[in-house]
Design a protein that fits this description.
One of its GO terms (molecular function) is peroxiredoxin activity. This protein is mainly α and about 180 residues long. Helices cover about 65% and strands about 0% of the residues.
């Protein structure tokens, strides 16, 4: 049951409207999460800026795989639906690769290192072992890339927490519940 209302276009604060309109234009509709998140122009626009910046980090398959792994750990079914959809339609990941990402792995060895690292960061709240840093570096990631993975984990966690708290109605194709794969 949703714990907050979804704003109609007329209710969107003026400071949120340009950002929300841009998302709607790019996606083709206004996702419920964004129509709720737009209630706070400060939080919504900060998140959108972070999302825009991090869309240049790594590659789309790795970003979506990290989003799936983090959302699975955080038990965010709304985000799992969104990331499964985008992983399939934008990153061109297969259904098996999507399930694998939710489990914290990838078929590509380099991407697997990043996804495993991201999952460990969220599971341990950043208290990872030296071996974990070594593993991602050994896969060819620079310290700057490692920082980008951490930033992606934080960004995805923000929307996971938002959606777990407010529970907007899902408007992307349903996926198996978190923890059921």
């Amino acid at each position: 049951m949703a714990r907050t209302s979804i704003l109609t276009p007329e209710q969107v604060p003026a400071e949120s409207k340009p950002t929300l309109d841009a998302f709607a234009k790019n996606i083709g509709f206004t996702p419920n999460m964004m129509a709720a998140f737009a209630k706070s122009p400060i939080a919504f626009n900060a998140w959108a800026t972070l999302l825009g910046s991090l869309s240049k980090a790594l590659d789309v398959k790795t970003r979506d795989s990290i989003g799936l792994a983090v959302s699975e750990v955080n038990g965010c079914n709304y985000c799992l639906s969104v990331h499964s959809f985008t992983a399939n339609h934008m990153a061109r990941l297969s259904a098996d690769e999507i399930i694998l990402a939710r489990k914290g792995h990838a078929t590509d060895e380099r991407r697997d290192a990043a996804v495993q690292f991201a999952r460990k960061v969220i599971e341990t709240r950043g208290r990872i072992a030296d071996a974990d840093v070594k593993a991602i570096r050994d896969a060819g990631y620079t310290d700057a890339n490692v920082m980008e993975v951490i930033a992606l984990v934080a960004m995805y966690s923000m929307t996971n927490f938002f959606n777990n708290v407010f529970d907007p109605e899902k408007d992307f194709p349903a996926v198996p519940e978190a923890g059921s794969i």
